[in-house]
Amino acid sequence: MVCFLKPALRSLAIALAIMWAALLSPAIARADDPPPAVAPTTAATKRRSSIPAPVRVEHGEPVNVTGQETIYDSKTDTFVVKGDAVMTQGGTVLKADQIDIMRRDRKARAIGHVHLIDPEVEMWATEGTIDMTNETMVLYNAKILAKQNIYHLEGKQVTKLEGQTYEVKDGYFTTCGCEKGTPDWSINAKEMKVNVGQTGTAQNATFNVAGYPVIPMPYAIFPADSDRHSGFLSGREGQSGLRGFQWLQPYYIAINKSSDATGAFDIETSQRVGGLGEYRLVNGKDDYLWADGAFYNEALRSDANRLDDIIDPQIADPHIPVNRFGIIAMARQHLTDNLIAYGDTVSVSDSLYLREMDVWTLSRGFQSGLGQSNFGSMSNAASNFGMLYQFENAYAQLQGNWNQDLIQPQQFALQRLPDLTVTGRQELFNNLMFSDYDAEAVNFYRYQGIDGGRFSANPRITLPWRLGDYLTGYGMVGSQGVLYDTAGRNINIIPVGTKPPINARNSTCPGGGGVELTFNNCVTLSPFNSSGTSARIVPYAKTGISTLVDRVYDFQFRSIEKLKNTIEPFANYEYVPRVYQGNQPLFDQTDRLNSRSLITYGFTTRLFAKIKEQAPEETTTDATPTETEAITDTGGTNVGPFHEEPLADSLVPPGGNIVRNGEHSQQLASLTVQQAYDTSHEVATGGSHVSDIEGLLSLYATQIATLSSQLDYNPRAHSGITQANATLDIQPPWSTKGSSIYLGKALQGSFIEFAYNYASRTSTVIQATNKNAAQLVSGRAYTEVFDRLGFYIAPSYDLAADRNLSTEYGVRLKSPCDCWAADLGITDSTNPNEVQVQFQLTLGGLGSVGRSPFGRNPFQTRGLVGSPTGVLPNY
User: Fold this and answer.
1) HEC profile for 469-486?
2) Widest Cα–Cα separation across the chain
3) How high is the pLDDT of residue 771?
4) What's the angle, vertex CA 175, arms to CA 129 and CA 248, rounded to 5?
């Protein structure tokens, strides 16, 4: 019950507080103002006359009162303004049939058709009285609209007591005010008492739907503060053929302004019961500690349920234990201005933990902070920690890295500890040229297989040049040197599509050998030993040349003033001599620098838009300029359990924004077409020295569309497309701009999203048996049919294997003014093999209960749809 009352009554308090401040100050008159020179008897002034002497507040702007008739009674020192009475101060206007100002008693009364207009509040009442000494007020039959007509409050009597305490009798709160009559939902109460900044209570309250009481709440206590508060958050509920009924209920703990914690109980009736805990400490943008831990017991899970959920039985450890846990954390700490300590970890109890769970952390910020788009698709759980020291034009980094292999046997997983890297740049000959240097000393470790130490250095010198406005270029020479001190046997990789024989060496393969590899490669120990020291030095050289031509067009369309198109041809050459490296260890990409005499050529064309200068929009939101970090200076927070991250710099369109001399430009699109030719080495199948032609097309984030695509074309024998992928997001013309009401986790706006991925048989390492090696197509779309109904669909299909991967269908029932929305979605997927039903109810201004079946609108995540206005802090 408290979940519904808390934001509703807090908004009530905020709205009333603004109204009281607007009403009280204009009504206070100075006691020592001399009375006007009029007879003590009643006298009427001319039509639309005003009070003879201006009435001023003790600390504020002058107050003017006008009306059709003004009467002054000297005995009681009372002004009575009748007929279209209007009292104004600054941007606040109070209208009534009659306004009485009793200066001696420091009271005022508004009678008949009372109407207050304020930038934040609009109020109507039949009558209201004000005690200016105690700063109290009583309104009768009051109706209050706050936050640009978002929040609606009505009560037969609203009383402001001393301080910041308010009483509401026989009233209700709702955000459904766009239609006349009974609101779709409301919170009704016989009595509400709110002490702003502390707590509030409600007695004899009910949650009403279409005017009918549905949920009774005899008594409730709730916080009435705009800061974060401890309490239950909205839970997540869903039904799945594999998990059963799932219910996850979090509880939020506001520790202080810099830290908070969340605990959540999670039950899946067919699989597991357990919980998650999270702690977050944020002292600044790069000073934070976020940690999540989870523990589950799966004693209630049947053996059949376990077997049905293992799609890939060829991983090294397909066993699902009864007790499972996961730890995900990240930390940054500035020890000095130039020295930062950091640590990130993902550690799990078993190889299938991340694949099986659908909730890994209670805050979404972990994914971007750890560089993971989806924890469920990780093949390696990595942990790294270290320190980074920055100095002039360089930095030094000392770190360690631990890998938990979720596919191959853990004894072959390669660890790095310690790992010291120094990287820098030095200007030479008065900035005529510059030198770059990279040096790394690392110790590799694994339980079985080759490991040991490696030192590598990569110094290089670059000479940039420019020929007027026509040509730019560079020349670079460098060398890469590597020194090894290693021990142990080499690692042997048996690829997918083969059947390793049954023998002792292949004991780490599925079944100990004799089973065809269909999902993963097999890793075994080679009989060859690479113990000892070795070294090699490989010199190289690079050069390049480019030019740029452009043209500017007057456009004058909506916010775009001009368009600029650039064409940038380029050509680069790289030479690496033949140096045999096959007898040296292979740990990562540093260990091989392949010989080449490679010419790369092509062009890039870009489209820029100059944006017209526009006056900043006046918005009414709960956000403040300080709310760009996870926990703000005021204690508010905009990242947290089941809420999206705030818009950050990373969401700026990839093309980037340019601000120069007060003018704003943005890159809208780019196209790059390039090809490579090696004069002495094969670069493609069939012995060809000519590579595929590659095209890269990007349409950066706008309110219309965004596109990212790549296409490779084989111009040689048996020409054709070898590889292609594209992701296209479209915001159709009929899409709404999003609601001005806070809608919690609900999707906003219509969109169409399409993704395609293709690879031909000839472009893969092992030729596929299908016509195409890979051909996947997927899409998501949501649109509102009319203002009360919307539909969602998200299919994913494997064209190469001719099978459906997953399909989701959804429907939304909603209010025309977005004061509520009910979302229902059904998902049928093959990995995991389940049918899942998800439901979410959203009350405008309050938030969401349940789990969103629709995901997020890609334009919404970029800040191009919707508004965060709401009564809840965005944690």
Assistant:
1) CCEEEEEEEEEEEEEEEE
2) 119
3) 56
4) 130
